[in-house]
Amino acid sequence: xxxxxxxxxLAAVIVASTPxxxxxIGELVVERAGVLNLGVEGMMITGAVCGxxxxxxxxxxxxxxxxxxxxxxxxxxxxxxxxxxxxxxxVATGLALTLFGVGLAAMVGQGYSTDxxxxxxxxxxxxxxxxxxxxxxxxxxxxxxxxxxxxxxAVGYFLRHTRGGLVLRAVGENHEAAHALGYxxxxxxxxxxxxxxxxxxxGGAYISLxxxxxxxxxxxxxxxxxxLAIVVFASWKPGRLxxxxxxxxxxxxxxxxxxxxxxxxxxxxxxxxxYIATIVVLVVLxxxxxxxxxxxxxxxxx
Amino acid sequence: xxxxxxxxxxxxxxxxxxxxxKDVTFDIRKGEVHALLGENGAGKSxxxxxxxxxxxxxxxxxxxxxxxxxxxxxxxxxxSGVAMVFQHFSLFDALNVAENIALGMENPPSQRDLxxxxxxxxxxxxxxxxxxxxxxxxxxxxxxRVEIIRCLLQDPKLxxxxxxxxxxxxxxxxxxxxxxxxxxxxxxxILYISHKLKEIxxxxxxxxxLRLGEVVGTCVPAETLARDMAELMVGGTLHVPERAPTxxxxxxxxxxxxxxxxxxxxxxxxxNINVEVRRGEILGIGGVAGNGQDELLLALSGEMPTPAGMxxxxxxxxxxxxxxxRRALGLLSAxxxxxxxxxxxxxxxxxNGFLTAETRMGLSKNGFLQWGKARAYAEKVIQTFDVxxxxxxxxxxxxxxxxxxxxxxxxxxxQDPEVLIVNQPTWGVDAAAAASIRQALLDLAANGSAVICxxxxxxxxxxxxxxxxxxxxxALSEPRPAQGLTVDEIGLMLGGAHDMEVAHVEA
Lengths: 302, 507
Known about the structure:
The complex is a heterodimer.
Chain A: H1 6-32, H2 40-58, H3 61-85, H4 90-109, E1 122-124, H5 134-138, E2 140-142, H6 143-161, H7 163-173, H8 175-180, H9 185-211, H10 223-233, H11 238-260, H12 267-285
Antiparallel strand pairs in A: 1-2
Helix pairs in contact in A: 1-6, 1-9, 1-10, 1-11, 2-3, 2-4, 2-9, 2-10, 3-4, 3-9, 6-7, 6-11, 10-11, 10-12, 11-12
Chain B: E1 4-15, E2 18-29, E3 33-37, H1 44-51, E4 59-64, E5 67-68, H2 74-79, E6 82-85, H3 97-103, H4 111-124, H5 140-152, E7 158-162, H6 170-185, E8 189-194, H7 197-203, E9 206-211, E10 214-219, H8 226-234, E11 251-260, E12 270-278, E13 282-286, H9 293-301, E14 311-313, E15 316-317, H10 323-329, E16 331-334, H11 349-361, E17 364-365, E18 368-369, H12 371-384, H13 401-413, E19 419-423, H14 431-446, E20 450-454, H15 458-464, E21 467-472, E22 475-476, E23 480-481, H16 487-493
Parallel strand pairs in B: 3-8, 3-9, 6-7, 7-8, 13-20, 13-21, 16-19, 19-20
Antiparallel strand pairs in B: 1-2, 1-4, 4-5, 9-10, 11-12, 11-14, 14-15, 17-18, 21-22, 21-23
Helix pairs in contact in B: 3-5, 11-12, 11-13, 12-13, 13-14
């Protein structure tokens, strides 16, 4: 352990957690609206390749992330049309979406090479970043890290304190009652699904533009599935989502550092540790109740 | 002319294969309670959904206060002053009272102002309600208050109430009527849907009777015999179940200190239930919904095993036995929820018949289905209980609620049970079919079986029970002979009016 710089480690934790946090906050909104979209992984990896190409073609980080959001949302729109209007099963459609997204991303990214570099601006927050240790851990990151935290806070506020958030929760809790009161269940859900797709896309692009940063097949490596699990772990509450994402990111960063120090534990065990930690936490915290209509198909006629 | 509020002219609405409303024409005056009477499937629900903007008529028109009225959606209806209290409450369990009310309003004030307003209105009309409580924790009566207050906060001109009393105790019904009378005196018109004739005779000024989607009569309920109204609804004479006097036999089922924790988050725990049921008797169990009815049925059917010694059948402890073991002994049950509990919605009637009748009727052999026997059994149920379905190959989902109810009850009765437990046996079934189901239960008891009938319909329980007990908060009262019990006594057994008070508005 002596070789690990704790300050760098904690800063790395935040970078490792950000893509998961972004994808998870999107999925949280989707699930609060009563839709279970298991295609997060597919939307993330589509966002990763779209963001990578858009960013490098324009040499602009903003264009890259915008492209990622659009790419993720487009894939999500397919899911929305299938489940909401053609009434397909959400679980099966979501799984298919992941397979589709992974394949699509591999095809689009095949042979794409570039010499340009995309720099995501870092933002050192004045004064706060000068605090020893803490400043380095929390306040010297790129803009996306702050945006992800702000987004979680905004979603939390939206769900808790606004009319729109109340209607969205109502649709997820009991879609038949919401319909009877005259709310457009499909439209609200479609909006939530697009938002979830855009967030997952941005999360994917964070991996391909900031964290790695390059394009390789299967770059998201299951981050979408972890994001799904963390939504449940967080009991569908935005505040707890941050804790869940940072826990997973923390274990990921820690095991990478442990591997680097050449610890006498086989690498495979270290690599699986973040996933095991997620499973353990899920089991320990299971039992909380999700939105009442989660995963159910809505027929306006019944 | 000016005292007409809503006029309906020639409303027609068809669905594939059925005409739900056919040329429906009538008027609702300001400040009257107008009853809409009819059997299930008579088109009452479609009609009120049309008025509330959920259904758009194929032809015909409506006029509200002399202006054309064609609501595109419930929001438009609410803006025009039409509010509705649903039969199956349109509430959100995980949200609190204030949030639920805000969802039904167009421009709700901030949560704090709304909470104050809810408290004010609820006290004014004698419907106490705490705005911050989670709706999933409320009783059925309290949930209805949420719906009513949601409507009252919008000062409606017309309040539509769809079977409002089916979940209330007699005392709660009195207080609801008090509230509705105050509203009427303030000039609010009420469209009151029910098939309980006694209520309509005490409350309503006018009644319109629907049968098979058409208006078949209008009357002034206070001046019309209940029997005449019933016959207009049914379109024929009504058969009243007859009971032969029976002698109670040996104890066949006994519950000793039956207690169980609530199986679900919003369920009710069972608390120390002691009762003995004898051959040849019908034990009626009343109670307001959500007081342990479902849980009691689960404990008796074997879906929820209980600690040893609590349930015994002919002196044999069956507390831990699973449903199929109990069925083999002759203890059968029919739960309340038809779709998904009593019947698997997407399976055919043959398959659904097989699911509970396999053991007792020998519908399988060495692990293989005997399709011929299973089909014959389903056909026998369909024929005996007059289930309207094109064939036994139809999916359970395709049947109307009342028809499926006849099938799931008939399926148990024809297995010749020793003990039959039914929950809400005639829920949503029309009067003629309800009478035949009750008759079948009486016949079963006359042949020496024991029947436990859990129901919220007190008239039904009084009609068929030998003894009556009430469930309240998961505890069962001491059973009393049903004959001679008065409505007030029953109300007290059911737990009274749950701290409701009479409206304080000066009329």
